[in-house]
Amino acid sequence: MEEKSISDIIEEYLKQILGESSQIEIRRSEIANHFDVVPSQINYVIKTRFTIQHGYLVQSKRGGGGYIRIERVNLLDNVDVLNSLIQVIGDSIRERDAYDIVRTLYDEKVVTRREGDLMLVALSKQTLNVNDCNVEAQLRARILISMLNRLRYES
Amino acid sequence: MEEKSISDIIEEYLKQILGESSQIEIRRSEIANHFDVVPSQINYVIKTRFTIQHGYLVQSKRGGGGYIRIERVNLLDNVDVLNSLIQVIGDSIRERDAYDIVRTLYDEKVVTRREGDLMLVALSKQTLNVNDCNVEAQLRARILISMLNRLRYES
DNA sequence: TAAAATTTGGTCAAGATTAGTCAAGAATAA
DNA sequence: TTATTCTTGACTAATCTTGACCAAATTTTA
Questions:
Q1: How do the pLDDT tens digits run along chain A, 155 residues long?
Q2: Domain termination site, one of A72, A92, A112
Q3: Could you tell me if B121 and B139 lie in one domain?
Q4: Quick one: A84 and A131 in the same domain?
Q5: What pLDDT is attached to residue A24?
Q6: Which range of residues forms the domain containing residue B46?
Q7: How far apart are alpha carbons A114 and B126 in whole angstroms?
Q8: In chain A, what are the helix, strand and coil shares in percent, each to the nearest 5?
């Protein structure tokens, strides 16, 4: 609430720009310079906060005229996006990544908070409570994909 | 009953702040420092006095910019129904019985159609897909109970 | 045109910064 | 006394920050 990390601040900055147009192109060194951090911090922010689980697609190009492009996408509307999301989940997913996906659905108003919470408790480590972490992650993937498919058919 | 423990004092302090806004974010080390106790004492206070049974949700994040967030939620009055259902479930439940319970919740308007559907796919034999039927029934019980516990409060 | 130089972004691992767990011992209540 | 609750700290885990080194694309030079 008070002391945000610089990564949080950069995240907010990028999302604020993304609020105006659904797609932005940035120059890594410029952003890094603007917030007085090393360039690789921008990669960290993107890798942890702008994944497909969060509802973002990222492309980039190196060399002169290079850029990082961030695009906001809807998880369930676009078949390709949903397919890539399911591909990312694969047959196994960590609690944290599942949480990010449900949070995105909530942010996109695809599900209500109550619906999202019901999904979350079914995906939580505490509820699944399986000894083998791999088995747990596989089970979580099956539950999440089933729920996503259920939501897809409805919309 | 005479001498308040330091845990009681910390509890009061946090609840006083929660009286002003329904959600607070604290830094564990700051609170610990303020009351001159070890940081893990804050975990103890939270674990014993800010549970969902008491009407609080807690989330946290480690690392730089880390925090502990405490949110006060409104407990609902149909708790008795949920309690008795949880007792019926026990530590194991068949798919058919789980379906009946969800159906009851839907008929009683405790959950919407969509919420009920999301619950059902997470409880189905096909989704869980566990070899051992007993393990499957136990897992189903944990998921259903977690979901019922989520229905105890309003969002 | 081909090689070299320059200009971008990418990866990874070490160190720093926070919170979580657990169990032993102390204090309090029954 | 005995049981429960509280306090403490050593150890663990997650997240963030930084920088050295790598890779790709473009531009300049031979």
A1: 457 999 999 999 999 999 999 999 999 999 999 999 999 999 999 999 999 999 999 999 999 999 999 999 999 888 888 888 988 999 999 999 999 999 999 999 999 999 999 999 999 999 998 888 889 999 999 999 999 999 987 66
A2: A72
A3: yes
A4: yes
A5: 98
A6: 6-72
A7: 24
A8: 60, 10, 30
Domain harbouring A102, CATH code: 1.10.1200
Decide: residue B154, CB within 10 A, 0-12 exposed, 13-18 middle, 19+ buried.
exposed
Q: Kindly state the percentage of chain B with pLDDT values over 70.
A: 99
Judged against a pLDDT cut of 60, whether residue B88 lies above it is answered with yes
pLDDT at A118: 97
In this prediction, residue A80 carries a pLDDT of: 83
Measured in residues, chain B has a length of 155
Dist CA B138 CA B146 (whole Å): 12
Q: Is residue A1 part of a domain?
A: no
CATH number at residue B128: 1.10.1200.150
**In this predicted model, which residue has the larger pLDDT, B39 or B108?**
B39
CATH of the domain at A54: 3.30.56.130
Same domain, B31 and B95: no
Q: How many residues in chain A?
A: 155
Q: Which residue places its CA closest to the C1' of nucleotide C19?
A: B62
Please count the structural domains in chain A: 2
The B-side interface with A (CB below 8 A) comprises 24-25, 27, 63-65, 67, 69, 114-115, 117-119, 121-122, 124, 126-130, 139, 142-143, 146-147, 149-150, 155
Do the Cβ atoms of B142 and A127 come within 8 Å?
yes
Measured CA to CA, the distance from residue B144 to residue B101 in angstroms comes to 9
Name the residue in chain A with its Cα closest to that of B129.
Answer: A139
CB within 8 Å: B155 and A113: yes
Angstrom distance (rounded) from CA B61 to CA B133: 37
Q: Does one domain contain both A64 and A90? A: no
